[in-house]
Automatic annotation (TrEMBL):
Domain of life, source organism: Bacteria
Domain called HTH lysR-type: residue spans: 6-64
InterPro entries recorded: LysR_HTH_N, LysR_subst-bd, WH-like_DNA-bd_sf, WH_DNA-bd_sf
Organism placement in taxonomy: Bacteria, Pseudomonadati, Pseudomonadota, Alphaproteobacteria, Rhodobacterales
GO terms for MF: DNA-binding transcription factor activity; transcription cis-regulatory region binding
Family membership noted in the UniProt record: Belongs to the LysR transcriptional regulatory family.
Keywords of the record: DNA-binding, Transcription, Transcription regulation
Protein name: HTH-type transcriptional regulator CbbR
Length: 314
């Protein structure tokens, strides 16, 4: 048997002949000549090596046992192709597919809200969330394992298209009973403290060092490096030091009184969140829909109103 010689037109001819009972009626249905239908049927039988139709007592063509098996297979294939065409159309319209969304670790406090919103508005799109520090997210963009990213300052490389989607202020935090928790704080009083910094490669680490170096103007300051915002928050609550951190990470702790703000010079530091993707690659329809949905609902997804309330207290 030559399975690769079978065509959809031949299978359609077999189906129609068995349905109509005659080659002439099948030819009318298919808008073909009777010889053309007969030729397709004979070619199909030659490929299968068996007779696929026979005449019943009334002279009508009906499928043989082998023909019935082939027709059943044709029906399954047609159903599979129909599903495939629906899936292709969904991919074309961007309501299906897979999109990898990279979010810097500071954004993990609102990233689940982004994904939940996307799953509600684009239920057919599989949004896979990747959390990492700034360096890791940039690497993901470079090696194309990340399609769309949310981060602070956009990188120079890889070349990217970035759009601001919300405020991303950084504030200094301390324990509620800390001596810096009340009133304005001088630079000298600030630099007497022990600072808790994120690891190398973190955007928060870069911003913290830049701020402290500017305030210190050559004066040394003490610090301890920690691997996550959560560790820093718990350490600040425990009184191990103070920290410059994204306001997004401490909304709940400030509201509950577990953390307090340090009102030091130059604070809060205004920054922006950006939504970006590689400039040298076109977005797939699904990626474009995810990108546009985040743009439309960024204020809600990023809890921007709550963050602005935090900043307004300084």
């Amino acid at each position: 048997m030559r399975y690769d010689a079978l065509t959809l037109k031949q299978l359609r001819a077999l189906e129609t002949v068995c349905d109509k009972g005659t080659i002439t009626a099948a030819a009318d249905t298919l808008s073909l000549t009777p010889p053309a239908v007969h030729g397709q049927l004979k070619s199909l039988e030659e490929s299968c090596g068996v007779a696929l139709v026979r005449r019943d007592a009334g002279g009508r063509f009906v499928p043989t046992e082998e023909g019935a098996v082939l027709l059943a297979g044709h029906e399954r294939a047609r159903a599979a192709l129909t599903r495939a065409m629906r899936e292709i159309e969904a991919l074309r319209r961007g309501v299906a597919g897979t999109v990898v969304l990279g979010v810097v670790s500071t954004g993990k406090y609102f990233a689940p809200r982004i994904v939940a919103g996307l799953r509600k508005s684009l239920p057919g799109v599989d949004v896979q969330l990747v959390i990492g520090n700034r360096t890791q997210i940039i690497e993901g963009l470079e090696n194309e394992s990340i399609d769309v990213a949310v981060m602070g300052r956009p990188p120079r490389q890889p070349a990217n298209l970035a759009e601001a989607i919300g405020v991303h202020p950084h504030v200094m935090i301390c324990a509620p009973g800390h001596r810096l928790a009340e009133g304005k704080v001088s630079v000298g009083a600030l630099l007497d403290e022990h600072f808790l910094l994120r690891e190398e490669g973190s955007g928060t680490r870069i911003l913290s060092v830049r701020y402290l170096d500017q305030m210190a103007d050559g004066r040394p300051y003490a610090f301890t490096e920690m691997g996550s915002n959560e560790t820093i928050k718990q350490s600040v609550i425990a009184g191990l030091g103070i920290a410059l951190i994204s306001a997004h990470t401490v909304i709940d702790e400030l509201a509950s009184g577990r953390l307090a703000l340090v009102r030091a010079p130059g604070l809060p530091i205004p920054r922006q969140w950006y939504l970006l993707h590689r400039a040298d690659h076109d977005l797939t329809p699904a990626m474009r829909n995810v990108h546009d949905e985040i743009l439309r609902n960024a204020a809600h997804m990023l809890r921007s109103e709550e963050v602005e309330q935090v900043v307004g207290r300084m």
